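Render this sequence as a predicted structure.
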Amino acid sequence: MKDKRALIVHSVYWLFLGVIMALIIFFSKERMTKEYILVGICYFSIINISIFYINYTLLIPQLLKKYWIYVLSIVALIIVMMFLKTGLALLYRDVMLEQTNPKTGITKHTDINLYMLSSVFISGFFIISSCLIKFMLDWFSNIRIQRSLETERKDMELQFLKSQLNPHFLFNSLNNIYSLAYQKSDKTADAILKLAEIMRYMIYESNDSWVALSKEIEYVQSYIELQKLRFKNGAAVEMTLNGEIDDQQIIPLILISFVENAFKHGVANDPKDPIRINIIANQKILHFSITNKKSNGNKDEVGGVGLNNVERRLQLLYPERYKLNIVNSATHYTSELMLDI
């Protein structure tokens, strides 16, 4: 047996048959002699157990796919065991075929042909039961393997998506710092320091499957501060937080792509029309929305992976527990995410 489930099923099966046999002996009107218990129960139980496990461990794994060979093997097994049982019955004729009632003195004779037929049916019972148990356990094992493979596939895909996200963010941030350095801006050192803080979160804290929502929001705020260094008068961002931010958890790096997308493709330095971020959290729902004015001159020629990446991660980690609504109007771009947390 490969696992505990198989051991339990086999134990229950044989215990059940043992209880049935004990009840038959207990309620039998005929007195069971020691010889009958030894031959009729012990010897024949060994034969029946052998039939069960010959089929279970040898014939099914090796020959089941070769259908006709398997059928012929089963027939041969039944015939061999029938002659073996019949031979034992003839060897112990007075025990197995001729039973005398001690009270009446009447001897009951069992027809040898009927005995052979009954041995065939008993052998068939153990073959069928071994098939059923084997197929049932294999079915459960296959389901378990499929679930394990699916989990491994999902984990690998998530790691791949996450590995995409970090270089994507780093690439854009380095571009921004390069612009500051090219302009010989005094903000360059601060930008590098802020990037180092952000990368520390991405490398260490975001390795966990879940992080505190407050940590994720701090990460978003650090990113916004980094982006503000790009602009002479700072970026125009309005961010509101409401609800139970400290007591909730979220998968890491799920909000940043929306914010990054707003800065990358939107107008971030217009005080009259700022980037608006709204986060509301309670015990059940996280509501996140971000709106930015569109910029016709800020196009990504390469094509980003951010939002597609986020949506795929949501599908894997929040199946049927999220709603993502994207509104792409002529002048503004709005992303609205609702998570069942």
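Summary. The first strand starts at residue 98 and ends at 100. Residues 112-182 form the longest helix (71 residues).
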